[in-house]
Amino acid sequence: xxxxxxxxxxxxxxxxxxxxxxxxxxxxxWVYGALxxxxxxxxxxxxxxxxxxxxxxxxxxxxxxxxxxxCLGTGLKDKNGVDIYAGDVFTARDGQTKLVxxxxxxxxxxxxxxxxMNNMGFYVEFYNSNNNQLQMPLGPTIRYASVVGxxxx
Length: 153
Hints:
Elements: E1 6-11, E2 17-21, E3 24-37, E4 42-44, E5 54-57, E6 62-65, E7 71-77, E8 83-85, E9 88-91, E10 98-110, E11 115-127, E12 133-137, H1 141-144, E13 146-150
Antiparallel strand pairs: 1-3, 1-7, 2-3, 3-4, 3-5, 5-6, 7-8, 9-10, 9-13, 10-11, 11-12
């Protein structure tokens, strides 16, 4: 069974973390759990953009989180056992290259057809030494990845 776990940022004064959205620093904390829709009183998995307010529920409480910060867990861990979410930034094997985990449609080269094709799912985006933006499937992160933050920190 697939377990959908989301992460979102709950804004609170003097919180333990600070993120930046649209140039504004916001204090708060990261919370983890399922998405919840108050209007229909149920846990949901895929309606983030249609919700009036985004709520993450876990065994402790309900948190109204900042919509832009809501990310789905990949189900994978880095080499240190840290869960990886879309939006996380981690280093590659070389310890230098920064990769960003994303969820959506990405381009992948098919050597048989010798063309780039659209794929959908979790992938990483990064820049090579020529400053070209590249995309590739997320892959076995437990072998090489080390989470260093996320796109908001």
